[in-house]
Amino acid sequence: MTRHFIVIGNPIAHSKSPQIHQVFATQVDIDICYQRQHCPDNAAGFSAVIEAFFHGGGVGANVTVPFKQRAYDNCLARGGLSEHAKIAGAVNTLLLNEAVLKNGGSIKDAIYGDNTDGQGLVNHIVRLGWPLSGARVALIGAGGAARGIILPLIEAGIAQLTIANRTVSKATKLVTDLSAASPTIAQHHITTCATTDLTGQFDLIINATSIGLSSNTLPLADDLNCHYAYDMMYGRALPFLQRFADRGAQTSEGYGMLIGQAALSFERWTGHAINVEQATTTLSKQHE
């Protein structure tokens, strides 16, 4: 039996998700059809697309830009949300809550949202062999990408977290909001500062801004250093990583996070755990 999946976005033609999930399906020997789904950028259009997909027998959907917030709002209003999705305020994975359906609920009310982005990042860092337990971590950026990874980082056992952002008030509000939503985050003392004021030595620095997609660079202090630097962007030369590589740090772009979050989505949908390293090797050979 073929299981059907989609990734919803606007634009969506560039998405690598179909290739990634086909590699997963081949690895665990199941038959899938995974397609890109363009969607109008409005709430009604998004709701119509996901409801039609699940009514038609769809098993699971990934959600990408600009619909992660819309997916969250949809599940908050009608379906359900995982703890990570609640804290992230965003959904990247949709599936049906079978318990709701068994109790006579509608498909609309059974659509459940999860967020695997943050755990995908943490799992990639672990695969790289970078230590997280007891680590001093700096996170640059206070937008949606940063919001989704804070709880998984804390759950991984980091000792200290500093959030740096161009506008300090935005970073401070992020910490306040997340602390109110999560006792785990509230118990962790998180500091904030302006990006230009981020100084000293860290074990790990993560760039959660999209500045790497432009020709601009982050205004980083000369005495800011780390052992490991991670940029959530991927697919091009990233000045953030080059800066720390020149200073002897180990670095990584975010392609491994992309595969990691996809593997977690696939496992939520199918129950099959993925050997991510094997899948990554297969995908790399396909692009040679």
Task: Provide an overview of this structure.
47% of the residues are buried. It is globular, with a radius of gyration of 19 Å. With 288 residues, the protein is α/β, with parallel strands linked by helices. It has 2 domains: 3-115 and 257-286, 3-Layer(aba) Sandwich (Rossmann fold), CATH 3.40.50; 119-253, NAD(P)-binding Rossmann-like Domain (Rossmann fold). The model has no long low-confidence stretch (mean pLDDT 95). Helix 1 (17-28) packs across helix 12, helix 7 packs across helix 8 (144-155) and helix 7 crosses helix 12 (255-270). Strands 2-1-3-5-6-4 form a 6-stranded mixed beta sheet, sandwiched between helices. It has 13 helices and 12 strands.
Number of helices: 13
- Return the domain count: 2
Oligomer: single chain
Low-confidence stretches: none
Beta-strand content: 15-25%
What is the second-level CATH architecture of the largest domain? 3-Layer(aba) Sandwich
- Count of DSSP E strands? 12
CATH class of the largest domain: Alpha Beta
| Protein structure class | alpha/beta
Q: Report how far the terminal alpha carbons are from each other.
A: 32 Å
Mean pLDDT: 95
Classified in CATH, the superfamily of the largest domain is Leucine Dehydrogenase, chain A, domain 1
Strand order of the largest sheet: 2-1-3-5-6-4
